[in-house]
Amino acid sequence: NMYENSIRVPALFRHPGRIPAGAVQGAMASMYDVCPTLLDYLGLPMPEGRDLVGGSFLPALLGEPFADREEVVIYDEYGNTRMIRTEECKYVRRYPDGPDELWDLVGDPDERENRIDDPSQAGRIAELQGRMEAWFAQYVRPEIDGARQDVTGLGQLRPVDRPGEGPAYQQPGAET
């Protein structure tokens, strides 16, 4: 699933004398950033001919000013589900036919009110979907594109069973 308690995972780094002890950094990062960060930390160059998706967050580890990224994208390891997350919101797209999700992470941090069907959010949804699709156009390899695979896990096919109302929460075979 793409809920915050599954994707917002803390990372701990320790290197006495180099990484400040007890420092807490709230910047958004992704597993895609780990390899570039470790290479940067070790003073090694990025591999030639490799299009690494992530970027280094070494300044954040060292307690230096860090330009936080605008968004984090998650894909493929979750089958036919893709997500883009900003500091304010999260858009989840399930291919090919949904149900999709839009969460206001500021006003609804527990993700209880899916705003995907809210007409006032149409512009935000279009913008996030466009940014996400542009990211995939640049980085996905079509022959292993998870959005095109046959996935049967409940968390990939639709939101997991949580209290809520509306079509995004309806489970197969459930009475309405």
Polypeptide structure, described:
- The chain is α+β, with helices and mostly antiparallel strands and 176 residues long.
- It has two domains: 57 residues, no CATH class; 70 residues, Arylsulfatase, C-terminal domain (2-Layer Sandwich), CATH 3.30.1120.
- Strands 1-2-3-4 form a four-stranded antiparallel β-sheet, with helices on one face.
- The chain starts with a helix and ends in a 19-residue tail after the last helix.
Topology:
Elements lengths: L3 H4 L26 H9 L15 H4 L10 E3 L6 E5 L3 E6 L6 E4 L17 H18 L14 H4 L19
Antiparallel strand pairs: 1-2, 2-3, 3-4
CATH fold naming of the largest domain = Arylsulfatase, C-terminal domain
The secondary-structure class comes to: alpha+beta
> What Rg is obtained from the alpha carbons, in whole angstroms?
18 Å
- Number of helical segments with 4 or more residues: 5
Q: Oligomeric status of the shown chains?
A: single chain
Across the major sheet, the strand order is 1-2-3-4
* Biggest β-sheet description: 4 strands, antiparallel
Helical content stands at 10-25%
Number of self-contained structural domains: 2
Please report the total strand number as a whole number.
Answer: 4
Mean pLDDT: 82
Shape annotation: globular
User: Separation of termini?
Assistant: 23 Å
Secondary-structure element pattern, one letter each = HHHEEEEHH
The amount of beta strand, in percent, is: 5-15%
